[in-house]
TrEMBL record, chain A:
Keyword Electron transport: yes
Keyword set includes Metal-binding: yes
Protein name (Swiss-Prot/TrEMBL): C-type cytochrome
Keywords: Electron transport, Heme, Iron, Metal-binding, Signal, Transport
Signal sequence region: 1-26
Pfam families: Cytochrom_C
Disordered: region residues: 136-181
Domain annotation Cytochrome c: ranges: 27-130, 209-297
Superkingdom of this protein's organism: Bacteria
GO MF term list: electron transfer activity; heme binding; metal ion binding
Record field: transmembrane: none
PROSITE patterns listed in its UniProt record: CYTC
Classification of source organism: Bacteria, Pseudomonadati, Pseudomonadota, Alphaproteobacteria, Hyphomicrobiales
TrEMBL record, chain B:
Molecular function (Gene Ontology), one example: sulfite dehydrogenase activity
UniProtKB keywords: Metal-binding, Molybdenum, Oxidoreductase
Cofactor(s) recorded in Swiss-Prot or TrEMBL: Mo-molybdopterin
Domain Moybdenum cofactor oxidoreductase dimerisation span(s) in chain numbering: 294-409
Record organism: Pseudohoeflea suaedae
Domain Oxidoreductase molybdopterin-binding per the UniProt entry, residue ranges: 111-271
Protein name: Sulfite dehydrogenase
Superkingdom of origin: Bacteria
Amino acid sequence: MSKSRKVAFGLAFAAGLVLLPQWASAADAAHGEKIFARCKACHAVGEGAKNRAGPQLNGIFGRAAGSAEDYRYSDAMKDAGAQGLVWNDDTLAAYLAAPKNFIKGNKMAFGGLKKPADVADLLDWLKTASGGAPAAEEEMAGLSKTTGQGSKEPVPGNAAPHAGSDMAEASSEPPHGTYNLGRRATDAEVAAWDIDVRPDGTGLPVGQGNAIDGEALFTEHCAACHGDFGEGTGRWPVLAGGQGTLTNDRPVKTIGSYWPYLSTVYDYVRRAMPFGNARALNNDDVYAITAYLLYLNDVVTEDDFTLSNENFGDIHLPNEDGFKPDDRLEEPEYAGKAEPCMSECKRGPVKVDMRAAVLDVTPDADNGEEVGSGSVD
Amino acid sequence: MGKTDDRRPGGATRRAFMTSALAGGAALAATGRSWAEGDPLITEIQDWNRYLGDGVDAAPYGMPSAFEADVIRRDVPWLTADPVSSVNFTPLHALDGIITPNGLCFERHHAGTALIDPADYRLMINGLVDTPLVFTMSDLKRFPRENRVYFLECAANSGMEWRGSQLNGCQFTHGMVHCVMYTGVPLRTLLQEAGVRTSGKWLLAEGADASAMTRSIPLEKALDDCLVAFAMNGEALRPEQGYPVRLCVPGWEGNMWVKWLRRLEVGDKPWAQREETSKYTDLLENGIARRHTFLMDVKSVITSPSPQAPVTHGKGPLVITGLAWSGSGTISRVDVSIDGGRNWKTARLDGPSLPKALHRFYLDIEWDGSELLLQSRAMDEKGYIQPTKDELRAARGVNSIYHNNSIQTWQVRQDGEVENVEVS
């Protein structure tokens, strides 16, 4: 960060603080939502919000400047974040009042909100819409460190002071544990990462999607590997069919034939699919794809079946009861624990009755086309 | 590597290399008279004895000798759909001792290797805790740490052999195992820092990679011997092993050792994630599947001789060596048979005997040049004995994929070549 930019940021920030008393009272969130209409062309907020021309704003309160995932920031904004600028009521108010002055060279094409009351209303609404704000002491602790020690080099491993343990030491947060290392996770941080769903439905987001939409999404995002009907292409996983094959010589293990819980489908698609572009689907898209997978597996019969967090618990997969706890150690080969035989353990000479060379599937220059059986999955 | 590349013995496979070496030896013997004065490698001055070698900075990070270029991880391309979600195998046949070199530890990723700058690393603990916490790398390095040697074995190791002998090489039949010394913070220490509530019974470990790998771990295990590790064999974790931070779940299946660890959630029930329902459950012959089969059973394999490490020296002294391990603790004994399991001799364990680590065994024999059917059978400190293939098939059928710890047979022919076989 250049020296001149640093100075500009510091001055503008000081100016921002001056605004504080003017907007501190009687904010009107409903009015704030109307003001946000002027921001919506570029910024999304709320469930499933994605970056547009501007970064998505979920978790903006307590977030370091320039840190929304996958958004291409200006160098000026990235530098401000690296210097310790964290978004809170004060810094956002200063920024929104005069975006170009607050951080010279940032790319937000917005002239600014002239009335402090408008800023206050907007922030009041945004605080709820973006998933809440961390405790005020934490924000101030992060800021005071930055402004007080602006010339200090970032600590290795702690590029953003807000995120490091330094902040915990400086905050008024009660000490935790034996070492008081690390800092309290904000609600927005936990919400960003904790997306797991359990079989009892714990963790499901509010939303819904139907199988017709799911088919279109599946064709677009999933069918290249899993096939149009979940039949799988190449060695990619087969997702549908296979019911009644678990005792066959070659079982086909699918959602309908093997998976015990629907929650696993929702959770996995949301966290890891589409392969190579994880988290690209919004929560309703995931409901829709899950609904389509239920339809492909004949678990539901209506082709326009709508799955939601409301009816999720009513769906049970056919093989839910097909599992039992680990009882390997009760098998005969383990249960005995007898002293093993050391001599004349087999009658007569031992004969070879199977050879790897017959199949010839060991990787080598000569047999690239051969395919053996089995999988690591 | 600079100059040394020029001296690599090409892309020949180890077996081809060994065969040609053997042929070379025979040629020398046949024309023995031409060097009656002695071995030209001794009687003549060699290049390396005359000319200067590379200076100290030729390889700031040292690499193995160019003559070991064939000792590498290898994959089985037909096994998986895409190398980004695949596995390769440790070259066990070419290694000795109990520690696996970092660059040879097998890889298994579900969405490729995540690249994470330690400055961007965050570890979150949330769920049923008094204080949800976020740690940075520098936070983790301020906790008291431990050094522990553990094996890590994929539950699917030997999974391609359920129906019979298939892959000719212990790298492929048994190479989804490695053993290194980890440095890290006990998981217990971090959980105590957040304060686990009494209702907490399970832990979810989550990775930061594009598969966001998740596994449920009983809290009892988490508080016992799990480590949050940032170093292996004295240096930072390798990227493919979870740099900058991975979880170690000693003695339990490798899939639970979440790499690029980013989150630990305490809960009151398991989460039934994809890797513990549709995968890593063991289908039995009756159509019922076992779940939560975490423990890696007692197991061993002879690493040399083996198909990729044939006998090249003819009869006389022969070192039979291999590895044994158990998720239950230390190995108490390894027996070796050279006649397909009719008669057994107790092998010599050498090197440290550490719980939940690889153990190295040797049986030094005088080979008479006849065919051998080599087997090894491990016993662990709990008294569990490695089963035969037939015993496991009788108990489970052939569709379990995971947890095949049965006794392996190698046939050593009179010419020293070795094949993966099954015997009656």
